[in-house]
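User: Show me a protein chain along with its predicted structure.
Assistant: Here is one chain, sequence first, then structure tokens.
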Amino acid sequence: MSDDKPVAAKEPSPAETLLHRAEEEAAKDPFAGVDFRELELSLYRPRTLFSIILSWIVTGMTLFALVPLFAVLWMLIWRGGQKLSLALFTQLPPAPLEQGGGFGNAIVGTLIMVGLATLITVPLGVLTGVFLAQAGASRLAAAVRFSAKVLTGFPSILAGVFAYGAIVLVTGGYSAIAGGIALSILMLPTVILTSESAIAMVPAKMKEASIGLGATGTQTVWMVLLPTAMPGILTGVMLAVARAAGETAPLLFTALFSNYWLASNGRFDLMQPTASLAVLIYNFSGMPFKNQVELAWAAALVLVALVMITNLIGQSFSRQQVNQ
């Protein structure tokens, strides 16, 4: 027979007993032992007073910074809203000393040139963003990324000068195509960088799962990465479109201006001078005729509305990506 004796259970120490009781009380009431009076805000406490003062300062500075924005918007609504009518969107710009008129051709020209720039920029910019996201820190990717960042600060007038030398002088005239190419140069870096950021934010597990299921690299990009990153990519496209719609200097060198419709005999002739809202505002705002100046204010209001709408669309796409 074994001489082993049963070992007596070790009694818990007083500290362990108190800890066990505290855990049981916390399980019953998670706020046990919390003094809520210590959590109340009081201006007599230096930390609370300092936080409230800084909050007031930040709020005041924010409102002060918004004053110029709301002042410009109010002036546009006040001056441009008085001239708004259906005729503005259906009629051509008036001649000097002529009353009435509109800028329908400038709206059409702006939409066409921005549309051409978007068609050029989106495929090239998205594919470049895919390359940068996949290539990582290679030398070629670093050089392309650096060039795109440099182009974000590229003066818009230099884009117009480049398009003038490369397109206008070669084709022998101003045109909507030259204007679209000039605008695409300004849109390209925004689309590239936002596309790269959106694709890089796709979880690596999704890519690994796609490859694990037997998909090729191309199939992973087209069926997993791009659909998942699409809200972020569309945000960059909308921001680029908003910037291009308000550019004036590149169009002065490429599309110039026109007082006529871009379409003739039911067809659009893209190889002729084309009107745009930005250039119309530039031309009419300096004229000594009241009617032209009022049209410039109305065109500025329409242009700001278009830019704000595209920015709001871009923000909505950005929220969709955050919620995913």
